[in-house]
Amino acid sequence: MGKGLNRTFQATQVGRVSMELADRAVGLLLTLTSLSIFTYYTFWVIILPLVDSNHFVHKYFLPQEYAILIPVYAAVALICFLSVFIVYVMLKSKKKKA
Fold it and tell me: CA distances (Å), 25 to each of 12, 30, 97, in order?
């Protein structure tokens, strides 16, 4: 293998390693975020109703009605986004055929 090709290969390998590290960091961040949200929501919905309403821990959580409203709004937003994306892809593929 020539020196130029060898350097290109090495540069590609270095780029891959740095991308793998970046992917792992993003994956770790997403995992920690989702685990935190799951823990908060589980405590909020399952355990908090069993705690006395005068307890200090209640000030760290939203009112109980938001436990239903937030996931419903998130689901509606996700469905809307997916619908718009699917329509966009279908229109784009229809343009290519024509």
Answer: 20, 9, 40
Asked if 72 and 94 touch (Cβ cutoff 8 Å), the reply is no
Within the chain, which residues score under 50 in pLDDT?
none
d(CA 89, CA 98): 14
Q: Which structure tokens are listed for 50?
A: 């069993």
User: What angle is formed at CA 52 by the lines to CA 33 and CA 48, rounded to 5 degrees?
Assistant: 20
What six digits make up the tokens of 79?
């469905």
pLDDT of residue 18: 73
CB 45 within 8 A of CB 32: no
pTM above 0.90, yes or no: no
So what's the pLDDT on residue 20?
86
- Residue 62 and residue 44: Cα distance in Å, rounded? 8
CA distance 7 to 60: 55
